[in-house]
Amino acid sequence: MLAVNLPNLKKRARDVRLNVLYQGMKFGQGYIGQGMQTADIMALLHFHEMNWSPDRLEDPTRDRFLLSTGHYAISMYATYAALGMLTRDQLASYGQDGSKLSLGAEVGHVPGIEFSGGSLGQGLGVSAGLAWGLALQGNSARVFNYMSDGETQEGSVWEAAMLAGSRGMGNLVNIVDVNRVQADGPLVLEIEPLAEKFRAFGWWVEEVDGNDMAALVEVFEKARDVADKPKAIICHTQIGAGSPTLESYPKAHFVRVEPDQWQGIYEEFEVASAEGLKGAAQ
User: Is residue 198 part of a domain?
Assistant: First the structure.
């Protein structure tokens, strides 16, 4: 069992959210809600769970992280900034013309990006192939794929799930972020029962509140002990988590925030995050 510093992980998640808000404020718009909702998971993975660090980007034994849902890149940049891999000036360029911090993360633009996500539904197939190859080489590295619930409407996801289950890829962890939101509002197609679908393909599956750090730590700890099956961790998240204003947006997939709204968003976030950190310390 890995030693866990829960207050520190909560603080890291807060740092990620602050970096997300900073990017959104500088650009005035973007996938801000997704950045906020993913902060707890991204902090847990990069500061605790993965065998990975910024100084090991070329180490063949490092765990791999693939962001299938490429437009969630805002949270990846925010995490890398919290790790000291990006500066505030670089964060401020998010989404701008000519910036390396494009709306969808791309290999070669920012060190550490393993996969150019964009065409949704592709990440799990690439991750399964990578996990299979690493296992054949005798490499103990794990592969973490991060995908959205909308991607499970793509047939390619289930082809990859069938392969991973049939080959018993115990080194593959698939994180499915379920916010039940797509570009024009609620999910276009119903995806449930999602857990049963993965289990039918031979996966180990757990569902968890993706904005509850303690619960996330526990479920990833359980997953680490499963060696003979691919793991699907279904994380139920709230888009805009931490900001009641962003959470209340009727269409929160890609949001535009007016200049006079930012102060209020920061203030409500600071209150909510302070309460969360206080609770973690008790």
Answer: yes
Classify strands 204-209 and 185-186 as parallel, antiparallel or unpaired. unpaired
Residue among 151, 154, 144 nearest 216 (CA): 144
Specify the residue for token string 């392969």: 163
Count of domains forming the chain: 1
Strands 29-30 and 255-256: antiparallel
Q: Is residue 1 part of a domain?
A: no
Q: Which tens digits make up the pLDDT trace of 133-170?
A: 999 999 999 999 999 999 999 999 999 999 999 999 99
Q: pLDDT-based confidence at 78, cuts 50/70/90?
A: very high
Q: Residue 101 is part of which domain span?
A: 6-53+60-281
* DSSP line for 36-54: HHHHHHHHHIIIIISS--G
pTM of the model: 0.94
CA atoms of 148 and 21, how far apart (whole Å): 21
Which residue do the tokens 């005798």 mark?
A: 138
CA-CA-CA-CA torsion sign (88, 91, 97, 100): positive
